[in-house]
């Protein structure tokens, strides 16, 4: 019971980090070492560093010119120049030259009206120490140059060398090892082809990449099976090989095969089990005791789901490791972003909401991406992450919140925010746009064709992709625009003509040729959900063919995505279903083209002069994108890049 | 002439960078290579990457529990539970297990009221796909995963491996070599002891440290003498050894020994000579042509002064190199800071103003540091840099500007802003404070004792160091506080008693014992400027000894710092001068103690409960700091840490 309670009693990440800092003795745990100064950037000083030499070593000329005694020039005026004798009254100096004794000012060569080698004419007075760098102006020998616990920046290296410091005492880099666990995880070194229920282990490499950026000396082990004894040994090995921290990947939850906590309890004391963040909740933090043979070291149990692991690494592990060395905690830039969609959130838990964000007009609009802990691609697609506070029940549409940026702030101005129906041709476009001299990042929030139009109305998208077929008019998109975007003037540009067809098993064993075959006894359909564009398309074709839904076996079995339809076909749960070519291709299935539809980009005319939209349209106009789209298969580019007009249909 | 004109015609850094981007062909210049995915973090993709495997590979359980067919549970109610048969109606699953065919939902084990191995009781309905991760939910095989020109973040590595991508085509890292020049610069490898007019070469290592953080493969050469032919060869060698960019350190100005421009013109075309930023102005940017044997590569002439070099590296080189690979431009976090002192600036030139910055009350107060281009330590001491725009004539006291942060934003809350008279004991304090579990960074703006009191009045300092002696009352600081800080309630804490004395040559050849000796024929004094506390102290002692200034040879020769006084003694320009022990120690001179003065910390009582001040006082109260101060020599710690009262004098 106790175990369960502690887990349920989740705490904020800040407290989790504080608990670790409170029990770890960083001065005892992390030793110091001597390194050459010119290799010490990023390292943390182990003690104070005092200057050995002064800089400059002597009063020296800060300009090319002549060195003088200021008081000999005081009388100089434009109309009554003063003449100085070479050697006694002035000496030529270059920048950096030591100032001759008795001289206390430098006059820039440009301001010297020279008469001859022996004499110089001055038409303005020089003040004492003018253009002179004085001894110790920058660095005074024996003085403190850098204090202890200072992470050395590039400039610090320059200062240290200038002060004659050629080696420095620094704190060791923290050493940490990542131990992935799980019977179902495959070692990526074997370049596996995962089967059902298997996953390729990757969290260890996400950790390795982070660790490199943190200045941590990191390593990892092959996946450890779900076995308490093996895990126990792996943790002890990690400690024995000199690591200050051992991170166990997965198994930190309270499930039947989660041994991490038990192992941690057998070699140390658990400080934290459960943080009040989603994803990331099942995070463990412990400190080793004598039983481990290496007391006082850090143990962290990172959740197995990739996004949960990232939150644990960024919010719990990173600050603790940074503190151990004395390095700066990694810190992300932030920005105020306006939410494009209402987003409820569970009270009591902070939530890491991944956002597709970009500037639209004066504000940065952010569309929430999928929220699953298992969806690592939401992080590859996001530009920002907003943490919805524990106290909050969610964020309203149009509400402005502070978000951490995953990209440089300036990049938000180069983002094209798309909301609407997603299509693979959009990915081809995204790829082309990244190749521009001023790259543009197309970020897409999948909300369906209607969702896209709604976003345009709300001003939360720069453009929207739509493939809405209207059986009445036999036209695409315009009838819906007329109905739902009355007050908005838009320009519609075609990206591609898309094929929808019947996804059938490889080799099309039942040789299905069209909708007519759907009435056959041996054919079982898998349908899309009501309202889906694809469902509307099917109904249209059935009607045209004079087929009643009742005559189609499986008509009432619904799926929600093209991929899910394809899966039904792959597993034999259905013998065919209507979908796009890409879904069939993804699962190696065959495809019987049935219908063609227009996938258009709907752009508010007000944005047509936005440089990003201009670049977008220029790119669509080129052959490169057409070639890329045709390469996908299942598309036609006869209309690509053309401005569409109502009633054009398929042109 | 042309040369001169181009140099005088300085341009903004943004235009300098744009000119380089306009002529460099990054796709031709930077090749691509294949690297293992798990070593590709930070690299830039050379082309689009498509997923090989889907993730999940199959519909799979997202929770530990039982897999069911949703419709078999719809009737379940708390009062009318539904019973399911094992095998046919439910199957036990762990997180990640593939969903058995026909099942489309998972019920968490916590919500299963199990009867026996054969039957499970459910008291609530499950909706279709509840707690199920569906095939391709995260990644769909064959779809675009990452576009070209994308710098891979840690999460991207996770996504790539999850999609079965084990190696990736990435763009080469940019290779750049730094060639330091100058007859006066010494190779740090030789661990030199610089003499007058010599400097230790360090810019190459500042470059190396930056380059590492930029992901650039950098190298450097030993210093090249000021000789056109040698420099010409060095540049060609740099290109021949495969570098995409050659950076020449120093010699980029228009002086008699500045050959960089001529060399660049002999192997390429100069695009920029002179940027409108101080420091940093004499920056050169060129592109090689056929004469170099390697056309289309980048040449940069970086100024020799360390701060100028840093501005050139950060503002010109970094953006160009980042663009060449396609990596994100290094970007600093910014903050709004309030200037503590009026700071005039030259119109037409942008100025990089280095700032000692920290939070005081609601705002971040920033005190300008010294502005010399040769003062690298201003960058080691600064927390922020504000760029005063070309158009501006300066910033007023109390004006708020945007500044780039050199430290994490959060660290500004852990900064103790000191303005006042600087003393080495303050450095000892700074070092101790960095050792705390929550380190505090003491930053100091040298403004003299009176300047410190003024800063307190203006609320632009957390505390001020002062050693103001009042001959009338024979007391320290309080008489001045009473006069100048009437409306402010302050607490005064002593940091140390400081010795002032006569700085004399090593061995004290003239055996000077005190002020009485200053009247001797053979003794020549070097004095401090009017108003200096040390000058006041000297006058006081002369008066007490009944000596008239007129009787002191050299009394009218003034210097502005302790160090400058010591230099006069070192060079024999004077036989003695009044100053602190540290100045004598720095130049290896002898010291004849003459007077003792109190160096106090003046703290507005309103700040006494600020956690930073509490920590400061706690630190002063400990023996560690006293030991450190005594170790310096020239100090006493009998009053250290004690609260001072008016009239206490030296206690």
UniProtKB/TrEMBL annotation, chains A, B:
EC code: 2.10.1.1
Top EC category: transferase
Catalyzed reaction equations: adenylyl-molybdopterin + molybdate = Mo-molybdopterin + AMP + H(+)
Key word Magnesium present: yes
Domain MoaB/Mog as annotated: residue spans: 177-323
Highest rank taxon of the organism: Bacteria
Names of required cofactors: Mg(2+)
GO biological process: Mo-molybdopterin cofactor biosynthetic process
Gene Ontology, cellular component aspect: cytosol
Pathway this chain belongs to: Cofactor biosynthesis; molybdopterin biosynthesis
Signal sequence coordinates: none
Family annotation (Pfam families): MoCF_biosynth, MoeA_C, MoeA_N, PBP_like
Keyword Ribonucleoprotein recorded: no
Keyword annotations of the record: Magnesium, Metal-binding, Molybdenum, Molybdenum cofactor biosynthesis, Transferase
GO molecular function, one term: molybdopterin molybdotransferase activity
Function in brief: Catalyzes the insertion of molybdate into adenylated molybdopterin with the concomitant release of AMP.
Family: Belongs to the MoeA family.
Matching PANTHER family: MOLYBDOPTERIN BIOSYNTHESIS PROTEIN (PTHR10192), MOLYBDOPTERIN MOLYBDENUMTRANSFERASE (PTHR10192:SF16)
Name of the featured protein: Molybdopterin molybdenumtransferase
Gene source species: Pseudodesulfovibrio alkaliphilus
Lineage: Bacteria, Pseudomonadati, Thermodesulfobacteriota, Desulfovibrionia, Desulfovibrionales
């Amino acid at each position: 019971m106790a175990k369960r309670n502690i887990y349920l009693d989740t705490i904020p990440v800040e407290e989790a980090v504080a608990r670790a800092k409170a029990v770890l003795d960083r001065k005892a745990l992390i030793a110091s070492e001597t390194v050459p100064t010119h290799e010490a950037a990023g390292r943390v000083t182990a003690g104070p560093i005092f200057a050995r030499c002064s800089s400059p070593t002597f009063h020296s000329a800060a300009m090319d010119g002549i060195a003088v005694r200021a008081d000999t020039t005081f009388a100089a005026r434009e109309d009554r120049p003063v003449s100085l004798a070479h050697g006694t009254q002035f000496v030529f100096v270059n920048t950096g030259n030591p100032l001759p004794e008795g001289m206390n000012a430098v006059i820039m060569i440009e301001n010297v009206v020279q008469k001859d080698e022996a004499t110089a004419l001055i038409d303005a007075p020089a003040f004492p120490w003018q253009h002179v760098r004085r001894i110790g102006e920058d660095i005074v020998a024996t003085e403190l140059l850098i204090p202890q616990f200072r992470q050395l920046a590039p400039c610090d290296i320059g200062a240290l060398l200038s002060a004659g410091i050629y080696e420095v005492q620094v704190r060791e880099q923290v050493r940490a090892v990542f131990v992935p666990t799980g019977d179902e995880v495959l070692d990526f070194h074997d370049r596996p082809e995962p089967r059902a229920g298997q996953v390729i282990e990757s969290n260890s490499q996400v950790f390795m990449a982070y660790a490199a950026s943190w200045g941590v000396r990191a390593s990892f082990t092959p996946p450890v099976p779900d076995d308490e004894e093996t895990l126990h040994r792996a943790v002890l090995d990690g400690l024995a090989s000199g690591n200050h921290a051992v991170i166990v990947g997965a198994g930190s939850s309270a499930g039947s095969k989660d041994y991490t906590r038990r192992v941690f309890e057998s070699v140390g004391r658990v400080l934290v089990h459960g943080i009040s963040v989603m994803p990331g909740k099942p995070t463990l933090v412990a400190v080793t005791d004598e039983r481990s043979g290496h007391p006082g070291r850090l143990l962290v149990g990172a959740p197995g789901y990739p996004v949960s692991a990232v939150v644990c690494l960024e919010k719990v592990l990173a600050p603790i490791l940074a503190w151990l060395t004395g390095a700066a905690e990694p810190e992300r830039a932030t920005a105020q972003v306006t939410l494009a969609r209402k987003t409820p959130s569970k009270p009591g838990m902070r939530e890491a909401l991944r956002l597709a964000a970009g500037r639209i007009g004066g504000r940065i609009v952010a569309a929430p991406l999928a929220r699953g802990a298992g969806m690592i691609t939401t992080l590859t697609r996001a530009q920002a992450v907003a943490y919805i506070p524990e106290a909050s029940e969610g964020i309203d549409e149009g509400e402005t919140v502070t978000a951490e940026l995953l990209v440089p702030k300036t990049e938000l101005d180069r983002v094209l925010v798309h909301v609407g129906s997603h299509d693979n041709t959009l990915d081809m476009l995204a790829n082309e746009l990244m190749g521009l001299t001023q790259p543009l990042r197309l970020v897409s929030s999948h909300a369906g064709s209607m969702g896209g139009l709604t976003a345009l109305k709300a001003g939360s998208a720069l453009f929207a992709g739509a493939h809405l077929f209207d059986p009445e008019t036999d036209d695409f998109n315009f009838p819906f625009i007329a109905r739902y975007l009355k007050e908005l003037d838009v320009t519609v540009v075609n990206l591609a003509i898309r094929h929808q067809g019947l996804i059938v098993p490889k080799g099309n064993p039942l040789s299905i040729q069209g909708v007519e075959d759907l009435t056959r006894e041996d054919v079982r359909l898998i349908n899309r959900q009501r309202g889906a564009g694809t469902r509307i398309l099917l109904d249209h074709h059935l009607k045209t063919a004079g087929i009643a839904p009742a005559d189609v076996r499986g008509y009432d079995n619904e799926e929600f995505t093209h991929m899910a339809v394809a899966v039904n076909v792959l597993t034999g749960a259905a013998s065919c279903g209507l979908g796009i070519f890409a879904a069939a291709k993804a699962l190696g299935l065959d495809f019987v083209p049935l219908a063609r539809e227009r996938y258009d980009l709907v752009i508010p005319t007000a944005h047509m002069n936005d440089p990003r939209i201009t670049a977008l349209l220029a790119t669509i106009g080129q052959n490169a994108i057409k070639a890329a789209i045709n390469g996908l298969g299942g598309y036609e580019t006869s209309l690509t890049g053309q401005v569409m007009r109502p009633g054009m249909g398929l042109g």
